[in-house]
Amino acid sequence: MTEPRGQQVEESVSNAAAPGAEALPPDDPVAAGAPSRSQWRDIWHQFRNHRGAMLALVIFLGIILFVGIGPWLWTIDATYVDYRARNQGFTLAHPLGTDQLGRDILARMMTGGRVSIAVGLVAMAIALTLGSAIGVLSGYFRRLDAPLMRLTELFLALPLLPLLLLMVTLFREPLSQRLGAGGGVFLLIVTAIGVTSWMQTARIVRGDVLGLKEREFILAAKSIGTPAPRMILRHVLPNVISPIMVAATLGIATAIITESSLSFLGLGFPPDFPTWGRLLYDAVDQMQMYPWRVILPGAFISLTVLSVNYIGDGLRDAMDPRIRGR
Amino acid sequence: MLTFALRRLLLAIPTLLFISLVIFLLLEASPGDPLGDVPLTVPPEVKARMREALGLGQAWYIRYVLWLKQFFWVEPLYWFDQAFGTDFSQGMQRVISFQSRQPVFDIIAERLPQTLTVVGMSYLAGILIAIPIGILSAYRQYSWFDQLGTFVSMVGFSLPTFFTGVVFIIVFGIRLQWFPSIYDTTHRVTDWDSFVFQVRQMAMPVAVLALYNAAQISRFMRASMLDNLRQDYVRTARAKGLSERVVVLKHVLRNSLIPVVTVIALGLPVVFGGALITEQVFKVNGIGQLLILAIHANDIPMVLTLTFIFAILIVGFTLIADLAYGILDPRIRYD
Questions:
Q1: For an engineered disulfide with B269, which of A54, A223, B311, B314 has Cβ 3.0 to 4.6 Å away?
Q2: ipTM given for this complex
Q3: One Gene Ontology cellular component annotation (chain A) (predicted)?
């Protein structure tokens, strides 16, 4: 509580254009050379002070680069079977070794990561869209509030992991026949995770919208006759963006963990379609001989989830106006 | 309070009915066939009769109501008979597993002790670790202990349990040979040596789950302690000369435990769900493993019953958490 203000004071002193200008703010701050203090700039400023979150952001971007650009630089195909070079250790030709079929583990790690992270992002996007839509609707329209909240409670009472297992096992075959092995399972897993993880977002957003509705600017916007859709898009949604973003980061983390748990139980993607969870599951049988094959994908999952969680933590701190500027 | 409890209990009934219907319809919509494993040489009319025998001949709503009757009426009657030696349930059909043709509840009763010991011990251990850490972290906020605690708990709930489990097996089971890596469920505790063996084989699964639970609960404990440490009554307690020990461990701790107790109650069904994975890692044949096997075998009654039991746990513990909050905190009034 003591060091907080230092930085702001410093900033305002260095920003003062002329000694006389301190008494009165300039008529046009942008022309006067003061930096525009947008909300996002403030948040970024605060976020940068969170050392753990910054480090996590760097690590997360590193992982994204690794799985995004990696396969172009490291051109061995992840499914290429080189049976003579199987079960190799760390060599120059295969920096992370090869598996029991002689497939290059570095390449499998990259492709697997692509799928895992893509599942995390898409499932999060589905959960977030559903959650914010339901949250905003039930917070904004009083008539929808009770039924939508009952629905949320019902979903919260569902045993999620067993249901996910059930959904994936039951519909895996028909969907992969219709949409191809990879695509069908991807769609299924992403939808299943998205549909079962929107409830927390909906609750948080609803609470925030309920609070917002009592504010004067909403009243003002209403009094000039703003129709409800524009009201929601222009005035309500931008003001609840911060809890949504925090929920988004946490959503990525849980989606990645859920997908890898499903793969770990042998109920996720097919074997020729590597994801981090699947790689770990495949390696468990040989963990006595080759412990690295288990540890590497596990470490990638954990590192990704840990960094995403830290980013979420930093975002929450940065977006909380009560502690911003400390 | 009583009216609140009754109202919540009544509300839980439609919720549970709805959930059971959802699970039932999901299973119904599935393309899987419980007779899929039957050889192709079996003629179709025999297959049709087998289907009949499994009770699959009727429309779905009849089977649903039948299952409800078996679950809520026949099974309790059967337990009553078992307990008091009466024979009300004579001639009534219990819920039967497709796989083994045994009553589902008998199989669950066989599996439940394993899950309960592992999950229960780990949750208890997690709580016992988490509460002191939470107290100390909050009391010395921003100290190195707090920083370390924050980091460890962040790592604790970021690491998926299947990864920590496997790493534990590699390090302690294979490299150091301290603990057996596979849980032997046929083991019976008869003397001191077998007790030691039981402790050793439980150590790893319990440690994995306890780490995960402790990470979450210690965060809540810390936040709740921090909230209370800033309250006026703490200053009053200090001002009237109470020792720091009494202030923190009696006044603040008691108040901070109220929300934590509800978090603990709410977390218990989630832990049961999470035990699914831990059981798979350590090959514990508890109800989690039973569920996965049943899903693979298209054993509809088993899957339906087990999933529904998970739902009952969730609804029940939510209710308990709400009621506990009201009992522990006299400021909460429900009516």
A1: B314
A2: 0.81
A3: plasma membrane
